[in-house]
Input
Amino acid sequence: MPIKVLFICHGNICRSVCAQYVFDMLVGEDRLEYAYTCESAATSREEIGNPIYPPMRQTLMSHGVPIGDHRARQLRRSDYDEYDLIIGMDSENMYYIRNIIGEDPEGKVRTLMSYTDRPDELIDDPWYTRDFETAYRQIRRGCEALLDHLKEEGYDA
Output
């Protein structure tokens, strides 16, 4: 059964969906679709049903990242049981993830950058910073590190 990853941000129209598409691309490049699946969700209800934010869409397209027909959704308590990893982008996300899912007895909840050599780095929301390129580069680095970590742990067999 594949490892299921759920990426989380505030609205599910910028960072988390970027991570979803980047991670999918990396998995595809390594031909590991049998080993990993991922989706994304929001901590808020503000953007439910909305597509990826156009500047993030443009940033992904400029890097050749394939984009699907995304519609934002909110994280649910039941997602904790459905996913193997729940990955947030910043400290506010982590706060609201824990409010929604409650306890994390299985240690599934982490920040994306915790898998990198800069584990305390957080990914600022480009909705506010308007710096979609920096967010993309951080997310790409985080997704590469996450995939490397999972392969090192033997989750690609």
Summary: The chain has a mean pLDDT of 96. Strands lie at 3-9, 36-42, 85-88, 109-111.
